[in-house]
Write a structure and sequence with these properties.
This protein has about 100 residues and is mostly helical. The chain has one domain. Helix content is about 70%, strand content about 0%. It is built from five helices and no strands. Helix 2 (about 20-30) runs antiparallel to helix 3 and helix 3 (about 40-50) crosses helix 4. The chain is globular, with a radius of gyration of 13 Å. The two termini are about 25 Å apart.
Amino acid sequence: MTTKFDIIKLKAQAALGNAEALYKLGVNYLYGISLDVDIEKAHDFLVKSAEKDFESAKTLLKNVFANNGMSSEIEPDFKENGYDLCLKETFSVAQFIIRL
């Protein structure tokens, strides 16, 4: 279980650019673990982590695409405009499903 103190530590580490902390915050926001579900924040943290070459973030992002019927063959360049737009649309679908 993630405590409020854990979240404070993760946010401090993420602010310093720690890829694992960015990933963990993204997961917490995505699934509502000790935080309210916030798909936009989840997206931002996961992409920042993936841009730092954190494999778990890359895998989670690829799985989000695959689970929504999209190709899991994603270019590793996470700064590409089309990828970012497509990912935000995917998270919007995921947020809709979570709210059902």
